[in-house]
Amino acid sequence: MTDKFTEIAQFDLPYRRKATIRLVEFEGGMxxxxxxxxxxxxxxxxxxxxxxxTQLSRTLADTAARL
Length: 67
Description:
Shape: flat
Largest sheet: 4 strands, antiparallel
Order of helices and strands: EEEEH
Number of helices: 1
Distance between the termini: 44 Å
Structural class: alpha+beta
Number of domains: 1
Strand order of the largest sheet: 1-2-3-4
Number of strands: 4
Low-confidence stretches: none
Strand content: over 45%
Mean pLDDT: 95
């Protein structure tokens, strides 16, 4: 069995970068949020548990409000 994922959102970022958010369900049933960052040919994937995803989203929203 392979991991199942659902694409939640895609973002075109400055300097031709892209970000994708996916909900990933692993073989054992664990679910995580996957943040995929693309910069040219470089791809970085970060899997976040619910608490980490919540903290990251709050920090991003609070920081963006200060821009």
